[in-house]
Each structure stands twice: as C-alpha cells, then as structure tokens.
Amino acid sequence: xxxxxxxxxxxxxxxxxxxxxxxxxxxxxxxxxxxxxxxxxxxxxxxxxxxxxxxxxxxxxxxxxxxxxxxxxxxxxxxxxxxxxxxxxxxxxxxxxxxxxxxxxxxxxxxxxxxxxxxxxxxxxxxxxxxxxxxxxxxxxxxxxxxxxxxxxxxxxxxxxxxxxxxxxxxxxxxxxxxxxxxxxxxxxxxxxxxxxxxxxxxxxxxxxxxxxxxxxxxxxxxxxxxxxxxxxxxxxxxxxxx
Length: 243
Prior knowledge:
Blueprint: E1 2-3, H1 8-14, H2 18-31, H3 36-42, H4 45-55, H5 60-81, H6 86-102, H7 111-115, H8 124-135, H9 151-168, E2 176-177, H10 180-211, H11 215-238
Antiparallel strand pairs: 1-2
Helix pairs in contact: 1-11, 2-9, 4-5, 5-11, 9-10, 10-11
C-alpha cells in the first residue's frame, strides 16, 4: 500500500506513459546509433507538451533545469536534425556515437566503471545489478549485447517498470492506492534509482557533456542526468515504506 497525505502531484508524475517514453528514449540513445526517426518520434510537439506538463509538478529547482533541457533538445532537433540533408546528419550522429562510446576518448557507460573498486568492467556493481534483476524475477534478454550494468540496460529496465505502473494506475485517489502490484512496481523503481542509477548516471552524463562534440548528445546527457535525480526525488515521496 502507498500512503500519502497530499501527494496528488506525485501521483500525476507516475501516471500515464510519459516517464516510460522518456526512459525508453534515453535507453535507445545509449544502446546504439540513434536514427532520425527515433529522435523525430520523441521530439514531437505533443510529446514535448506532455513532458513540460509532467515537469511542472516538480519543485522549482528541479523543474526549471528540466524545462530548459527539453527546450534545448527541441531547438537542436528543429534547427539542425530536423532540417535538410538527413544523410549527412545520420553520418554525424553515427560518428559521434562511435567517438563517445566506442573509443578511448569517450566514456564508458557501465556502472562498474563508475562505481567498481577497480573501475573495470563486470566488477561488483555488475554483480549487484544482476542480483537486483533476479530478485524480482528478471533475466537479461539473450539478444541484448550489453551487460546488465550498461546505461542502456538499466534505463530500459526503468522504462519497462514505468510503463507497467503508469499505465495501470487508476484515477487519482485522495490518499491511498489500494493496488499491491503498483505499489511494488513503484517501490522497485525507487530502490533501483537509489541503489544504482542515481549513484552514477549523473556523473556519466556530466562526462558526456564535457566530451561530446555534438549538440544532440550534449542535450540528451543534460536531460538524462537531471531526470534521473528528479525521478528519484518524486518516487521517494511516493514510497515511504522503502525509505
């Protein structure tokens, strides 16, 4: 059971598919070369309005930077990626993906690298993430090429749970949600954010902003870092039993 006093805005935050779509898009950005179609689908006017409405329930110190970050992403799309010569833009995005995630000059989007004792792949954080997934009955898809502690996999895990809990939430209650499965899904998300994502994704995103040469990756990294921290704050207020 989720108990709250005047938590209506927090329930608004987790209702619907907005969180799931954002986590899914961020996962796709880290997973592989992004397509113009994926960016266009995410940057539609309707989706940007939904994001702005969602961020509006946050405290001013969280909402302001997030609103600026999606405005920046929209500007990048409208001024550069959504214009002429798509083949050239695709090539630039592919080059930047390779530079950022496949060369020594870029970043290593693995929790083990950021939090492990020796900053190496498949260190203890990788083991901890695998254990977390298994405790709730999940295994990595056999077709997934990245290890369990890769940013794309962790963000994709959050996307799945965000869609599950958001799409099944009933109309806003005044104080209590009487659905154990939704309570559990939200508690799992809050725990995963606290134990894993919030402890390294913001640092990864800071590194991307410092190293990238492309405005798209800079704007997405800014959005990802801010969103993970804001989501953790909101879910913490919704799941007092797990705090």
